[in-house]
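Lab notebook, bench 4. The sequencing result for the construct came back, and we need a structural model before the next group meeting so we can plan mutations. Quick request posted to the team channel:

Model the 3D structure of this chain.
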Amino acid sequence: MLRAAGIAASFLLPSAPLGATETDALTEADALAGELAQQCASCHGEKGISLVEGVPSLAGQPEAYLTRQLDRFRAGQRSSTTMQPIASRLSESQTTALAKHYARMPVPQIPNPADSELMAKGQTLAASRVCDGCHRGGAATHELVPRLAGQREDYLRAALFAYRDRERASPEGVMAAATDRMPDEHIRALAHFFSHLP
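Done. Here's the predicted structure in token form:
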């Protein structure tokens, strides 16, 4: 909690001067994007590639998706003792700049060698659960949908468990329906499959 408070406090950055236009504020926030991202790097990694267990990589995620998630943290629609206070201190222009910054970064490379049996099982499950309707090939087919390919396997696994157990909500309840009563071994196979896709 103390670490979270410290990180959140570091986001108390100066806002645009009085009389500045929205364009001026956006330009200022864009210039600060690199500085903001350096503070994010303690959890999300340099170049947006996380080395911390349970923390997602942000590099190459759709800009609209990243913006929406920060907005959801700010509104309390997505729960995180770390991210909610951070998001609440970001201005709209800073949020936009950060989302653009990470969206432009190269997608993480495929992680450790895949387990062929888990990959086959995950592929079958992805088709039967209609995952490809939104996450086709591990890449988002819509700007508000996250890219799964190359994402940390432990993060994907934890997210699927959270959706299934109703500890995390998704817009329109899509993920709750997709993971409803999903066995643990299916979740593990899906997380392995998507994280190892190019």
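Confidence is low (pLDDT under 50) at residues 12-18.
Will bring this to the meeting.
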